[in-house]
Amino acid sequence: MTVLKLPTFAPSTLTNAASLIRILALASIAGAAISSRLFAVINFESIIHEFDPWFNYRATRVLASQGFTEFWNWFDPTAWYPLGRVVGGTIYPGLMATSGVIYNILHALHLPVDIRNVCVLLAPGFSGLTAWATYMYALTKELKDESAGLLAAIFIGIAPGYISRSVAGSYDNEAIAIFLLMITFYIWIRALKDGSVLYGTLAAVFYFYMVAAWGGYAFITNMIPLHAFVLLLMGRYSDRLYSAYSAWYAVGTLASMQVPFVGFQPVQTSEHMAALGVFGLLQLVAFVQTIRSYLASKQFQVMLQWFLIAAGVIGGLAIVGLTITKTIAPWTGRFYSLWDTGYAKKYIPIIASVSEHQPTAWPAFFMDLHMLIFLFPAGVILCFKELREEHVFVIIYAVMASYFAGVMVRLMLTLTPVVCIAAAVALSSLLDIYLSVEEPAKPDSNGVGETAPPGADVPADATVSKKKKKEVAAAAAAAAAITPATTATKAKTKSSTQYGIFGIDTRLVVVLNAIFMLVMFVLHCTWVTSSAYSSPSVVLASRRPDGSQNIIDDFREAYYWLRQNTPQDAVVMSWWDYGYQIAGMADRPTLVDNNTWNNTHIATVGKAMSSSEEVSYPILRKHDVDYILIIFGGLIGYSGDDINKFLWMVRIAQGVWPDEIKEPNYFTARGEYKVDDQASETMKNSLMYKMSYYRFNDLFSGSPAFDRVRNQQLPKEGPKLDYIAAEEAFTSENWIVRIYEVKKEDPLGRDLKTANAFDGGKKRKPSKPTSRRKALVA
Amino acid sequence: MRTQLHLLLLAAAAAAAAAADLWPTHQRLAPSFINTDVARTVELSSQAYVKASYSIQSLSDVDNDVFYLTLSEEEEKVTGWIEAKVKGASGGLQVKRLGQHADSLVYVYAITLPKALPKGESLTLLIDTIESHATYPKPAFASQVDNHFRVYEADGLVLSPYETTSQRLRIKAPTPNIRSYHIPPALEALAKDEPAVKSGATVTFGPFKSQPPTATKDFDLAPYRVSVDFEMNIPALTVVSLKRTAEVSHWGANLNVQDEYVVRNDAPELKGQFSRLDFQMSQHARRMSPVIIPALSLSLPSGAHSVYYYDIVGNVSTSVFRPAPKAAGRAARLSPQNAQLDLKPRYPLMGGWNYTFTVGWDAPLGDSERWDEVNGRWVLAVPFLTPLPATPIDSAEVKIILPEGATDITVHPPFDVPLIERGHHITYLDTIGRPAFTFHAEKLTERHDGLIYITYKVPTAAHLQKPLAVAAAALIVFSVMWTLKRVDMTIKK
C-alpha cells in the first residue's frame, strides 16, 4: 500500500535522472561551500588573513617566483634575527606546493592569476573538494546511501566549525588538511573493504600529502591504527585488514619520512608508536592465523599462549628500553597538554598563551555546529545498528574527536567532519522513513497485521530499485528504534501491533519540521560565517553612526610605513604575534615570530618589554633592534592589544629569568591587573607600559586620559619615555600601532640620560655629585 | 613635434636619437641673430616655471629661420619641458634637441621660425621651460611644525650664442617671505642701475648691460649665479617612477589603464620623529604644515569605471573614487567632466617619505579609439600619463598592449621618446600573445600628457582566435572524459 501514487518511469530514466541530479547537487553544494566563504572578500577585499597565513603567503611567493629547489633550500635571515630560520626544513610544504602547482598550471594555460588570489581562494576551493570527499565517504558502499552522502556534503560545506578555518584569505594548512583527512579516511575504508593493496597504497599517498601539509597528520597516524586495533579486538581480523593496513603503513611511513620537517619522527617518537605497534601486531596475528591452518587446535592453543606472551613481553620491553635510552623520543609538551589542560599553563606558557589552544567553551559547540550537534549522537547510535567496519571507524572517530574538541578550540575542526557525517546519517534515516510512500497494511483490513512486503504486491513500485527497498526496510527498523517508548506502550495495548507510519499528515509534520531545522541551520551558518569568521583581523571594520562601514586599517598603515620609510635592514622588535605580519607586509627582519620555536628568544623579547628602560636598553642594543612595534587599543577600544597580552610576556620571561621578572610585581597590592593610579611601580616602569601610554594623556588635553579597553583612568602624569631607550617614530591613525625607534649610543660616549638632559638644556643638578659619592660608599 | 615612425624604422630611430646627443664640433653656431632684449621670469612653485621672452633681430639674409637656444649643464639637468612660440601668433614652433655642443659644451636646441627672418627685422619669441628639482631645501631637515625654506639658484646671465643687448631676470616666490637673495659682485658690476630689487614676492635682477655671445668655450657662467632663499608653502611631490600599462580589448570594448606610481615628498626631511598627536592637533586646528601631503587627487577620464587602487599590501581603503557626474546633453558630451580619485595614502606623507600605489580603471574603448574608414585601420589614442598638478615625473614607462593578432602597426609618440621597445604580452587565454609597445622616457612634467597614437589592423581571424581556442580546449577535455568514461579498464576475472 502507498500513501501517494507516484508516477512511474523506466528504470534507466530514473538512474540517469538520479545521476544527473546527483552531479548537479554536488556541483551546487561545492558552489555553496565556496561562495559562503567569500564574505571576507566581498566585505573587505582579497587579502590574506590573520597571522600564520601571512607567512604561508610569503613562502608561497618565494616558491612561485624562485622555484621549488630554491624554496626547499630557503634560509630566511630576516626571521628570528640574528639566528635566522631554515624555512625549507621547518615547515609543512604541502600548502605552498599546492598553491605553487595551481599557480604554474594556470600560468601554463595563459591564465595569469595573481599568486595572492591563488592563495586567498585556495581554502574555499578545497572546501568544495572536501564536500565531495565527504560525500564519497558517506556513500552507499561505505556508510549508508547517496542521500546521506549528499546531506553530509551539504553539512560539511557550510558548517561554521569548518568555515572558521577555511574562509577566503585564511591561507593556512588546515585549508587543505580537512580535505586530505576526509579523502584519506575514505580511501582507507575503501582499501579495508576491498582488501585492496592498490587502495591501501593510494591511502598512503594521500597520507603523505597530509603529512606534508599539516602537523595534525598525527590524527590519521593514530586513527587508522586505532581502527585496526579495535577491529582486531572485536575479532574481525581479516586478510583484507592485513593487506590494507600493511600497504598503508609501509608506504605511508616511508613516504612521510621524506618530508624534512618530519624526518625520522615516524620511527622515533611516541606519537607514531601506535601505528608501528599495530603494524607489528597485525604481522603476529597474520602469522598465527597462518599457523592455525596447519596445526591441530589443541597444539595451537598452547602455542598461541606462549607465543602471545613472549611477543607481548619482548615488544613491551623493547619499547620501554628504547624510550629509556632516548631512541624513542618521549611525549612532547603539546601532547601532554591534550590530556591535562592545565599542563601547558604551568610548564609551557607559550603554548597556553595561544587563544586557539584554550579549552572549548560549551556555547562554541552550538555556535560551530548548530543542530548537527544533537543529531550527532543519533547518527553514532545508528552506526551501532549495523556496525560494519566503516561504522566502527565512525564511532571511534566520533569518540576521539569529541574528546579533543573539548580540550582545544582549534580541534573543533577535526570534530566537524564526523559530526556532519553522523548527523547526515541520522537525518537521512529520518527522511527515508518519512518520505517513503510505503504504508503498512491497516491491521483491521484483514484482521492479521501484516507488513506489506515491499514491492511484492504493489506493481507501481517496480520502479523503486531493489536496493532502495532494502534501505527502506532497514530505515523503518531504525525508526522503530528511535521511538521505542511510544511503540512499546502501543505494543502493550494491542497484541497484534502494527509498526509504521500512517497517513500523509504524520509525514508532513516530521518532514516540515526537518525542513524547518535545515533552514534554521542554513541561516545560522550564514550568520555565523558572515559575522564571526569573515574578519581578516588585519583590517577591522566598525560602523559609523549612520550605519555605513568604517574600515580601520591601522595595521597596514603602520606596516607599510615601515616598508617604505625605514632602511631595508632595520630590525623590528615586537611581540611574536606580529612577526609574520611584519615580515609579510613590512618586509623587515624581526626578532621573534609566530613560529615559536625558540622559547629563550621569545623570553628575551618578553624581558625587554617588561623591564624598565635601563634594563631593556642593553638587550635592545645587543639585538640590533632599530624599531619596537607595539599594539595599543586604548584609544578606540581594540581589546587584543599588547597590554592585555602583557602578562604572557611576563610569564614567559619569568620562565627563563625567574630572579629578574616576577609576575606578582605587575599586580596591584590587592592582586589586580591595573594600569591606573594603583598600578604597581614595576608595571609603570615597564617599557611596554611606557610605550603604550606615551603622550596618551596629551590627547585628552587636560582631562584625565581614559583607556577604553580596560575602562580605567590613567594617572595624571603620563609616562616619560624620552630618556633612555626609544623615541616615538610612528603612530597609526587610531593609535593601534605605535612604533618607537631605539636610540643609538651617544656619539660622545655619555650615557643617554645625561645626553638627553643636556640636549633639553637642563642644568646638572647640584645633588648629583653627592648621590654619586653615596653610590661609591655603598 | 609629432614624428611618424614606421615599425621597421623604430630601431633605427632610437639609434639615431642616441647618436644625436653630441652636436658635431664643426658646425658653428653662427651669430645670425642679436638678442635685443631678454626677459626671464621664473615662477617658483613645486617646480620652476621659466617664461622667457627673447626679442631678436636678424643679422643675416640667408635662410635665417633657425634660432638656437642654449642651456648650461645645470639648466639641462633640470629642464624637462621646452616650448616656443612667436609672440602674438598662435601655435607652437618646432623645438628640436640637437645635443651637447662638443666645443662650448652647451646644450643646443633648434627652434624653427615660421619663416626665414630677413636682415634687420625683429621678432619676439616666447620660450617656456619647466625646471624640475631646481630648488633644494634649506635646511635639509625640518620638524613637523616648522616653516620650510628652499633655495633656487639660476644663471644671472642668459646663455646664448648671440649678442645680448639687454636682459633681466625676475624670480617670483610663492610667498613674500624671502629670507635672502644673493647676487655675486661680478654680476652686480654689469647692472645698468640697481642690480637687484625685491618687491613683494618678486626679486628682479638687472637689467644688465650688453653682453657678447656667452655660449662659447671661454665664457664661464659660474661667477654669475644668483640665488633666492624663500619660504615654501606648496607641497613638493615627486613621482619617482611611473609605470603605465594600457590594454586594449576589442571583445570587451574596453581600455584598461593601470598606473603604478612611486612617489616621494621632496619637502625637507622630517627631523626626529613623527608625532601623531601633533599631527592630529594641527589637523584639528587647521594649521597643518602645507608641505605635508595627506592626499592626492587624480583626475581620470570621464568614462572611467571599475576603478581600483591598491599598494603592495592591499586596497588603499582610505581613498574615495568619485565618478564623473552623469550630465546629459551636447555640452556635457563636448566637454565631459573628469572623474576624480581622491587617493589618500595610508599615512600622511611627511618630508622625505615615500609611498607607492597602483591605480587602474576601465574605460569604454570608444572614448579612445576610432575606426578609420579611409585606411581601414583602427586608430588608438592613449595619453602618455595622467598629470598630477605641478609634479615632476623622474622616469616613466608606458606600455600599450594591442589586441592579439594586430598587424601593420604604426606608432606616433607625442614627443621625442628616447626608447621605444616592441615586446609581446600574454594575458588571459591568449595563444600567441599580443603585440606591446613600451615607451621609456625620463624627466617628464605635467605637460607631457600628450596622446600616443597607434594605428593597426586586426584581421577577422584574429578576433575569432580566442573563442575558437577556448572552444577547442573544452572540446578536447570533454571528448577525453567521454572516452575515458566509456573505456572499461578493469581486469576481468
From TrEMBL, chain A:
It catalyses: a di-trans,poly-cis-dolichyl diphosphooligosaccharide + L-asparaginyl-[protein] = N(4)-(oligosaccharide-(1->4)-N-acetyl-beta-D-glucosaminyl-(1->4)-N-acetyl-beta-D-glucosaminyl)-L-asparaginyl-[protein] + a di-trans,poly-cis-dolichyl diphosphate + H(+). Its cofactor is Mg(2+); Mn(2+). Residues 21-423 form the Oligosaccharyl transferase STT3 N-terminal domain. It is found in: Endoplasmic reticulum membrane. Residues 569-620 form the STT3/PglB/AglB core domain. GO terms for biological process: post-translational protein modification; protein N-linked glycosylation via asparagine. Keywords: Endoplasmic reticulum, Glycoprotein, Glycosyltransferase, Magnesium, Manganese, Membrane, Metal-binding, Transferase, Transmembrane, Transmembrane helix. One of its GO terms (cellular component) is oligosaccharyltransferase complex. It is an enzyme of class 2 (transferase). This is Dolichyl-diphosphooligosaccharide--protein glycosyltransferase subunit STT3. It comes from Calocera cornea HHB12733.
UniProtKB/TrEMBL annotation, chain B:
It is found in: Endoplasmic reticulum membrane. The chain crosses the membrane at residues 467-484. One of its GO terms (cellular component) is oligosaccharyltransferase complex. Keywords: Endoplasmic reticulum, Membrane, Signal, Transferase, Transmembrane, Transmembrane helix. Residues 1-19 form the signal peptide. One of its GO terms (molecular function) is transferase activity. Pathway: Protein modification; protein glycosylation. It is a single-pass type I membrane protein. One of its GO terms (biological process) is protein N-linked glycosylation via asparagine. Belongs to the OST1 family. Component of the oligosaccharyltransferase (OST) complex. Subunit of the oligosaccharyl transferase (OST) complex that catalyzes the initial transfer of a defined glycan (Glc(3)Man(9)GlcNAc(2) in eukaryotes) from the lipid carrier dolichol-pyrophosphate to an asparagine residue within an Asn-X-Ser/Thr consensus motif in nascent polypeptide chains, the first step in protein N-glycosylation. N-glycosylation occurs cotranslationally and the complex associates with the Sec61 complex at the channel-forming translocon complex that mediates protein translocation across the endoplasmic reticulum (ER). All subunits are required for a maximal enzyme activity. PANTHER family: DOLICHYL-DIPHOSPHOOLIGOSACCHARIDE--PROTEIN GLYCOSYLTRANSFERASE SUBUNIT 1 (PTHR21049:SF0), RIBOPHORIN I (PTHR21049). This is Dolichyl-diphosphooligosaccharide--protein glycosyltransferase subunit 1.
